[in-house]
Amino acid sequence: MSYWTTRRRDHLTGYLFITPALFGAAAFVFVPLVLVVWYSLHEWNVLADTFDFVGTENYRRLLDDPGFPAVLRATGLFSIGLVVVNLGLALALAVLLNQRLRGTTFFRVLFFSPVVVSLLAWTIVWGFLLQDNGGINGFLDTLGIDGPNWLRSGGTAMASVVIVQVFKNVGLNMVLFLAALQGVPQELYEAARTDGAGPWTVFRRITLPLISPTVLLTSIITVVGSLQVFAQISVLTQGGPGNSTTVLVYYLYQQAFQFHAFGYGSTLSVVLFLIVLALTVLQWQMRKRWVFHEN
Amino acid sequence: MRTKVVLYGLLLVLCVPFVFPTWWMVTSSFKPNAEIFSPSLWPSSFTAEPWRQVFTMQPFAQQYFNSAYIAVVVTIGTLVVASMAGYAFARIRFPGQNVLFLVVLTGLLIPSEVTIVPLFRIFNSLGMVDTHWPLILVPMLGPPSVLATFIMRQFFITLPAELEEAARIDGLGRPAIFRRIALPLARPALGAVAIFTFLHSWNLYLEPVVYLSTRTRYTLPQALTQFTDAYQGQLWNVQLSAASMTAIPVLIVFVLAQRQFIEGLAHTGLKG
């Protein structure tokens, strides 16, 4: 019997097959993650070519940074707003499209279409529509309503950015919800109706628990995605007015790549990582309590 | 009957914010500057001048090519890397498999925005700033590729073992089983991963803004923001023409293959 048994050959093939993925994860995820923590302990100026160890200096700067609470606030507002509106609308659209109606495929295509429209194209046309003299205010004008300067006033800028992003990607969650809804066994609905349950009770007691794994999945994807928003802010508001829409990634970009404060930028990156980590763990914990069943 | 009318009415109203912006983008791109802010659904004096200006103001054809070739390379690369790793994690038994999978999986928790500063430094020391390498290597091997590996593994795990056993008895080795049996069966999952990966690369914005500084090397998302006059005022009709050219080809492919698009995404993203 030769050394190369089927089992041994399998081991080798297995390692060879995962090598590119493993190398990629190491080189472009884990090594940079360790480096970003290391950099966050340094004062690093590219222009002056200095790289000095400063310990926790950057973290103290973070606590003293008068702009930072506003950044956290904007990040939280954006994420909460996006997740609530996105998941709510996605579920509503999925329920609508799950009705026995002709032409639901057609509407499904329309609701999904912004997902495939280039993000920047979508953002630019909304930026155009939301100008003070743009299409939306032009339409409101014909109704005799004097619309605000959506992207330049504190009360509406954040809401506008959230809405633009919701319409861009809600189709994705809608499709996931729709697939989940179609997986709910019809017998359960019939049994519930026979027992005299109204539509709202059926939805709350049967539909929602049965699709809760999908709710969890989509909420994790949406929360993590909401923390990565950059292009929309950069194009629509540049973080303004004031810094009311300066979310964490935009602030990180400004500090690192506009002000060349790479050390401080790294510290902000660590904060972003910790937020993503905490939220994912939190949602994973919630799964045990709220998600009805899993297989 | 009444409920049907109400439902259709509701669907039609809800469609507006999804469909109207694309309509507005295309029609406004044919409006002359003087008419650009008029709230008319159709240009009253039609002009193709903005579409021409797109190409005279910037090396737009070159930028279009940059985006297209980067997205294609990233998509093919990701499919290769993710299907091989996904297959190995799902179907081959080897020591340390579970630990290694868990390690790869934790990569899902680290968005590429977190690591952009160190990656910039690494690419800078390799002389790769202001080249397309970062835009190809990071998506192809970094976090998006980790997600693709996970999706592929979840798919391969559902394949019945009998298929492979029969092939083994016929004397096929692992690589042949992977190529001739597993991969052809994985077409729906590969399709979904391809769509996700292509769109991700096509939409990439932070990375090009950070890495690229030469106009001829720009990708589309970055190029779209550059149509301004001498006073940094936006040339809306030119910008919207460029945006239309970026959006329409992908939209056409989507409309032609909408079933594969939507159902592929729904059914592979979900089985987790």
Automatic annotation (TrEMBL), chain A:
Coiled coil: none annotated. The chain crosses the membrane at residues 12-41, 70-97, 109-130, 257-282. It is found in: Cell membrane. Keywords: Cell membrane, Membrane, Transmembrane, Transmembrane helix, Transport. It is a multi-pass membrane protein. Residues 72-283 form the ABC transmembrane type-1 domain. Belongs to the binding-protein-dependent transport system permease family. This is Sugar ABC transporter permease. The lineage of its organism: Bacteria, Bacillati, Actinomycetota, Actinomycetes, Micromonosporales.
From TrEMBL, chain B:
Residues 64-257 form the ABC transmembrane type-1 domain. The keyword Cytoplasm does not apply. The keyword Cell inner membrane does not apply. It is found in: Cell membrane. It holds the Pfam family BPD_transp_1. InterPro entries: MetI-like (IPR000515), MetI-like_sf (IPR035906). Its main location: membrane. The chain crosses the membrane at residues 5-26, 68-90, 99-123, 135-156, 177-199, 236-257. Keywords: Cell membrane, Membrane, Transmembrane, Transmembrane helix, Transport. It comes from the Bacteria. It is a multi-pass membrane protein. SUPFAM superfamilies: MetI-like. Belongs to the binding-protein-dependent transport system permease family. This is Sn-glycerol-3-phosphate transport system permease protein UgpE. It comes from Actinoplanes couchii. The lineage of its organism: Bacteria, Bacillati, Actinomycetota, Actinomycetes, Micromonosporales.
